[in-house]
Specification:
Elements: H1 7-12, E1 20-23, E2 27-31, E3 41-45, H2 57-78, E4 82-86, E5 102-107, H3 124-135
Bound molecules: adenosine monophosphate and zinc ion.
């Protein structure tokens, strides 16, 4: 299903042009308009899912297979030194477009980007408590 007022639905389904790297029945892969690095791309499902939690399990599997295929090709063609695959859910996690998308970000030595988090410190007790919260 598409959502009428969703820009990524329109891009994924070809109603708004974008630089397309790959397309099949389920997905379109486009270059990001505000790239973190050269080649930064987005995998967009053609159907509208707001985020990971709405994405069907089979589509999750398909999206990761496609990510691997694209990352392999992009690394080779762009001579990348590394690769980040990132996916944001909800505003608090940095999601700005509420149509599921997976970021494919080729990394280069000294590319000046800082995509990783700042590590904090934690006690064994805190880790234990968090673990219990998740698994219980
Ligand atoms: P996120 O913050 O995870 O929701 O990522 C949204 C991404 O979409 C950002 O990296 C934007 O640069 C990118 N973006 C927004 N609009 C467009 C567009 N029309 N074409 C290509 N990329 C876009
Ligand atoms: Zn959409």
């Amino acid at each position: 299903m598409k959502k009428d007022d969703c820009i990524f639905c329109k891009i994924a389904n070809g109603e708004i042009p974008a630089k397309t790297l790959y397309e099949d029945d389920m997905f379109r892969v486009i270059l990001d308009l505000g790239p973190a690095t050269k080649g930064h791309a987005l995998i967009l499902p053609k159907d509208h899912y707001a985020n990971l939690f709405e994405l069907p399990d089979e589509t999750c599997a398909d999206v990761m297979k496609l990510a691997k295929k694209m990352a392999t090709r992009m690394t080779e063609r762009l001579h990348a030194d590394g690769f980040n695959i990132i996916q944001n859910n909800f505003e608090a996690a940095g999601q700005t477009v509420m149509h599921y998308h997976l970021h494919l970000i080729p990394r280069y030595e000294d590319d000046g980007q800082h995509i990783l988090w700042n590590p904090t410190t934690v006690t064994q007790e805190e880790l234990e408590k968090t673990m219990e919260e998740i698994i219980k």
